[in-house]
Every structure is written in C-alpha cells, then in structure tokens.
Write a structure and sequence with these properties.
CATH topology of one domain: ABC transporter involved in vitamin B12 uptake, BtuC
Helix content: over 70%
Strand order of the largest sheet: 1-2
CATH class of one domain: Mainly Alpha
Strand content: under 5%
Largest sheet: 2 strands, antiparallel
Structural class: mainly alpha
Number of strands: 2
Radius of gyration: 28 Å
Shape: globular
CATH architecture of one domain: Orthogonal Bundle
Distance between the termini: 60 Å
C-alpha cells in the first residue's frame, strides 16, 4: 500500500467532508469582505483588527501541527521570539524588507527542527513538556543576546513599516498587506493539507503504527510539520516586530503560547476556519467584554481589570468545554447545525410529479379490485 491510497485507510472522521476549494473560497471571501468593512467603517479598530490578522497566522500554523498532525506544542512563543529576533538580526546584516522576514522564518524553522528532533518520539503531555522546555531554552538565549548586544531591559527598536504615513493610513496599509499574506497562507496550507502530505499527517495522527505499516516515514513527516509550522510562526513574529516597532524577549511569554492553544481549541482542531474563528474570539473578547460590563456597571480602573479577568475566564471555560466535549470546536458545532438544518429542509427537486393518466389508471385499477368480506371475530384471518 502506498501513500496515494491513504484516503481508503484514514477513517471518515479524520477526513474533511467539504470540498476544500469551496471552503477556501468562502474563507478568502469572508476575510476579504471583513477587511474592506474595517477599512471603510472601522478605522478606529484597525489596530485590533490587524492584531487579529497577525493572530490568524499563528493559529493556522499551530492548528496544522496540533490538529492535522496531532502533535501538542506549547513552544509557539519561542518561535515567535525567534522570528522577531531573526528579523532584527537580518536588518543588522543589511537585509531589506521582505528578505529579513524570509530569513526570520528560515531561522525559526531551523529552531523548530532542533527542538523537534529530540521530542519527535514523544506524544501527548510528554511532547508538550518537551516543547515547553524548548521555549524556556530559547527565551534564555534571547535574553542573553538582548542584554549583551545593546538591547538592555527595554529591547530593540525596529523602524515600523509604513512609518512615513500617518497612523490611520499606516494601519490601512498594514491591513491590506496582512490580508494578502493571510490569503497566501490559506491557499498554501489548504493545498498542502489536502494532498499526500495531509493524508499522511492525518493517518499519523490517527494511528502511528498503521502509518509505519503502510510505508510512511513518520519521523520525516513529523519534522516537516514542525519546520513548516515554525516557519509560519517565525514569519508572524517578524511581522509583529515590524508592526510594533520594538521587540523584547519579555513580550513573548508563556501566556501568549496559552492564548494560541485557546484559539486552536476553541475554534476546532484540524480546521482552518476554526483557527480563524478561535483567533477572532481570543483577540476580540477582551475588547467586547468591557462594552458588556459598561452596560451593567460604571466604568473605571477596577472595571477594566475585572473585564480582562472575565475575558480570561470566558475563554478558559470555552477551552475546558471543547476539550471535554468535542475536538470540533465552534467550527465543528456550526457545521453540525448546518448539516441538521440541511437534512430537515424538504428536497422538492427530488419529488417528481405524477402524470394525471397514471392517477386515473390507478383509480380504475383500485375500483376493479374484488372486495373480500371478512367475518367479524374470525381469528383465522391474520391481522384482525
């Protein structure tokens, strides 16, 4: 058996049912319409929306690693940190934009392979702890580099992209730039995950022993997944450095890694749409909760702190709910509701009208049938 026949070996629950190109078109259309809406009507919230577009990159990358391949990782903050510092190193080497971003992504992919080689044989909690150890290692290396190369405790300054424009115009250009990057990412990840590599990754996730039995090089495919996911997260870290204009190792904390785990878990594993939905929930929830709190109480510093705590509690509860109940998350729940609604919808096109001649003939035939008189109380007649 070869990898080309993997669709017959992978369980139905492990393979998406919707057509990938159709879903891809819907995802690109929705994110494009929302971006244009913010460009026209929501200029005041463009900074938060651009943060959401940046979060999509990391959520899709982590979803590829956790949802498609089944490798739990808490080290995505380390790859964000590597990408941000890699961009700064690339600028110091004289690399112009966007080549410094490519350099940062390659450096982050190399870090992912280095961490993945010793952790590649682990699964579950042990793999998560191994990636957590990699996060602490990279964080300490970045801290030493920052303190010894002029960063001090404040970090490094990077000229922000589009800094020659005013703030609103710069955010608009950032939105268009990030939209193009997100579209390229969605197309690339969809095509990769729906082809031979994606089928192999899903079979590895479902049963690694069976994957080895059909001839899949499990170690190589896992390292490819680590490298690809780390590359995307490294690009996100580099773009974050250009977006904010400053980087420091203290910015990329363990809480950031947990927030991306929340995005993937809430949105739904092995679902690009789920990663986008989870990113929207985690990014916009702290913005929307204060609005709701203001409706029930007076504003203030205490209420602002309470709003942040409430937002944290809400998506913490969502993590627990979707971890215990279903790996489909919000995207899977929405798909289930849509399937139930579609199943209950009457299919009028499949009902063919009966010709009038057939109805008349049936009535005539019914009239010619002999009537059988059944004696009352006759127990020998079945059904009476």
């Amino acid at each position: 058996m070869t990898i080309d026949r993997l669709p017959n070996a992978v369980p139905d629950s492990a393979t998406p049912r919707r057509r990938p190109l159709g879903m891809l078109g819907i995802q690109i259309g929705v994110i494009t319409v929302v971006t244009l809406a913010f460009l026209v009507f929501g200029v005041d919230y463009l900074y938060v929306f651009n943060t959401f577009l940046l979060a999509i990159l990391g959520a899709v990358a982590l979803n590829l690693l956790m949802g498609t391949v089944g490798l739990v990782s808490i080290g995505n903050s380390a790859f964000l940190l590597t990408g941000a510092f890699g961009s700064m190193i690339g600028i110091r080497m004289g690399l112009p934009f966007p080549f410094d971003i490519v350099f940062a992504g390659v450096l982050s992919a190399a870090a992912g392979v280095v961490i993945g080689i010793p952790a590649i044989r682990l699964r579950g909690l042990e793999l998560a702890l191994a990636t957590l150890a990699g996060y602490f290692l990279i964080s300490q290396l970045a801290a030493q580099y920052q303190l010894r190369n002029g960063g001090g405790t404040a970090g490094f300054l990077i000229p922000p992209l589009y800094s020659s424009f005013d703030l609103d115009r710069a955010q608009q250009y950032w939105a268009l730039t990030l939209l193009c990057i997100v579209v390229v990412l969605l197309v690339t990840v969809t095509l990769i995950s729906r082809r031979r590599s994606g089928r192999a990754w899903r079979l590895i996730r479902e049963n690694e022993i069976v994957a080895r039995g059909v001839g899949i090089p499990v170690t190589r495919y896992k390292l490819i997944a680590f490298a690809l996911s780390s590359f995307i997260i490294g690009v996100q870290g580099s773009l974050t450095a250009h977006f904010s204009g400053s980087i420091s190792f203290e910015t990329f904390t363990l809480a950031v890694a947990i927030s991306y785990l929340a995005m993937v878990t809430i949105g739904g594993l092995d679902s690009i749409a789920g990663a986008m939905i989870g990113a929207a929930v985690v990014v916009w929830l702290p913005i929307l909760v204060p609005r709701v709190v203001e409706l029930f109480g007076a504003g203030g510093a205490a209420d602002a702190g309470a709003s942040a705590a409430i937002a944290t509690v809400v998506y913490g509860v969502l993590i627990v709910v979707f971890t215990v109940s279903s790996r489909g998350g919000l995207a899977g729940g929405a798909q289930s509701v849509w399937q139930k609604v579609s199943a209950r919808r009457p299919r009028m096109s499949s009902v063919r009208p009966v010709p009038a001649e057939a109805v008349e003939q049936d009535d005539a035939t019914h009239d010619l049938r002999p009537e059988v008189a059944i004696p009352a109380g006759d127990a020998r007649v079945p059904g009476v």
